[in-house]
Amino acid sequence: MIEKAVRILRRGGVVAFPTETVYGLGARVFDESAIRKVFKVKGRPGDNPLIVHISDMKQLELVAGSVPDRAKRLIKHFWPGPLTLVFHKKKSVPDLVTAGLPTVAVRMPNHAVAKRMIRLLGEPVAAPSANISGRPSATTFESARQELEGKADMILKGEPSRYGLESTVVDCTVSPFRLLRPGSVTLEQLNKIVKVRPMASKAKGAQKSPGLKHKHYQPNCEVLPLSGAEWKKGLIKLIKAGKKIGVLSLKAPVPKDPHIVFSEKFRGRESQYAKKLYSSFYRAEKEHVDVLAVQSTGKTGLGLAIMDRITRAGGKA
Ligand code: TXA
Ligand code: MG
Asked: Most-buried pick from 51, 70, 115, 126 (CB within 10 A)?
């Protein structure tokens, strides 16, 4: 199957494939018409750049200009893994991939299928998440199929993604480095290795990482974050309003009521919350809920990434 995917990529096709973060929709980075197809298939705005996926350090040299020593330390600690680093780009990287930016975002995934596909191809693969633009990322084969069946030239099968949220993105072209998108590698973990500043305010962030300004991660139902303090009252209000409700609870108790058609409880484990977040969004759609009530987390550790996705999914960021 992976060999077939590689043949398709070589012929200019686009292939959805599993990674440890979310499923990606890949094309050869140097094939402009294939890259155009990625944007078209997803309905992605042309000003939102793609991440370039590599399988070894030689491939980094094909796309990135100079790599600062501090970035090398991050690479040593976190690659392969859920961390994307932004560098000055090599001229050979098509402007389409970087949406005209002078920089390129690069990641080395830690997933057997993704690694093997890129290694066999022998060159980097540009890949956004495997979902229609604006929708939740696919973290299961079924979600990837739901989004891209008949649109991608092939969808490679894998287990549900281990982390469930997109990679952490760090800009290595500024000093100190800056977080552009929180993810499974936390700011605290990064700061143990090198100084990385928190995300800029929305206006500045939108300039630097154009993708941040677009609608993101939104299922076909309302996503309503509720803190622990708002939880009980909030749920009762939804029940009284006659809503069909789905619930994602980190710790808060979930009442038994026929309006609540499904609930996922994560027993205080944020990693499980992250892993199941998007598949729960897809489940909420399947069960036709009106509102998915999701418990807010703190904004430290993995909580920063979870809250980022939840607020954007709710259309509040
Ligand atoms: O985990 C992931 O990163 C997944 C898997 C497939 O690897 N990919 C992913 O791609 O989430 P996508 O396209 O959904 O998100 C890419 C993010 C966007 O926020 C985009 O703006 C940012 O990376 N990005 C890409 N190139 C950039 C650049 N040169 N400068 C700043 N931000 C960049
Ligand atoms: Mg995406």
From this structure: 126
Residue 217 in tokens? 């991660």
Can you list the domains of the chain with their CATH numbers? 2-197 (3.90.870.10), 222-313 (3.40.50.11030)
**Ligand 1 center from residue 51 Cα (angstroms):** 5
Distance 77 CA to ligand 2 centre (A): 24
**Relative to the CA of 21, which ligand 1 atom is closest?**
1
pTM for the whole thing? 0.96
User: How many contiguous H segments (helices) and E segments (strands) does the chain have?
Assistant: 12, 14
Cβ–ligand 1 distance for 169 under 6 Å, the answer yes
Question: For residues 29 and 49, what is the distance between their CA atoms, to the nearest angstrom?
Answer: 12
Helices (H), the chain: 2-10, 32-42, 57-63, 69-78, 95-98, 112-121, 141-148, 187-193, 202-208, 231-240, 270-286, 303-313
**pLDDT 10s digit of each residue in the chain, 317 long?**
999 999 999 999 999 999 999 999 999 999 999 999 999 999 999 999 999 999 999 999 999 999 999 999 999 999 999 999 999 999 999 999 999 999 999 999 999 999 999 999 999 999 999 999 999 999 999 999 999 999 999 999 999 999 999 999 999 999 999 999 999 999 999 999 999 999 877 655 445 566 667 788 899 999 999 999 999 999 999 999 999 999 999 999 999 999 999 999 999 999 999 999 999 999 999 999 999 999 999 999 999 999 999 999 998 76
